[in-house]
Amino acid sequence: QVQLVESGGGLVQAGGSLRLSCAASGSIFSINAMGWYRQAPGKQRELVAAITNSGSTNYADSVKGRFTISRDNAKNTVYLQMNSLKPEDTAVYYCNVDVNPLSGIRSLSGYWGQGTQVTVSS
Which of 87, 84, 89, 74 is nearest to 36 (CA)? Predict the structure, then answer.
């Protein structure tokens, strides 16, 4: 079993900043890619940013230059620093982690966090 605990969401004014964290624990041998997704009301879940185990990153065009993804491999934690937030960034943010388990079969869809609400007021 793998558990993900997210934190750091909240309400912020446009132009403000938030930092999301997602810590993985449980039956983990190693972690491959880690990522953040978001889902706004009435919209599909979309990839915001991802980072490989070697540190390569990719971002959605809408957040490039404003958001930064990083990871602490010793803590099995991924972060999303969000700056210059806009009202259109309002969504529930989910982390997703691709885990190689200590035993059993690797989940091809990865593991999902419970989601954290980010609300940006204008």
Answer: 89
Residues 1-23: pLDDT tens digits? 899 999 999 999 999 999 999 99
Q: What are 116's strand-pairing partners? A: 93
CA distance 73 to 71: 6
Distance between CA 36 and CA 79 in Å, rounded? Answer: 9
Intra-chain end-to-end CA distance of the chain, in Å: 40
Q: How far is CA 38 from the centre of its chain?
A: 8
- Whether the CB-CB separation of 100 and 106 falls below 8 Å is answered with yes
Could you give the angle at the alpha carbon of 120 between the alpha carbons of 42 and 84, nearest 5°? 120
Neighbours of 17 (CB within 10 A): 11
Q: Render pLDDT for 82-109 as a digit per residue (tens, 0 to 9).
A: 999 999 999 999 999 999 999 888 888 8
- In degrees, to the nearest 5, what angle opens at C-alpha 76 toward C-alphas 44 and 46? 10
- Residue 1's identity, in one-letter code, is Q
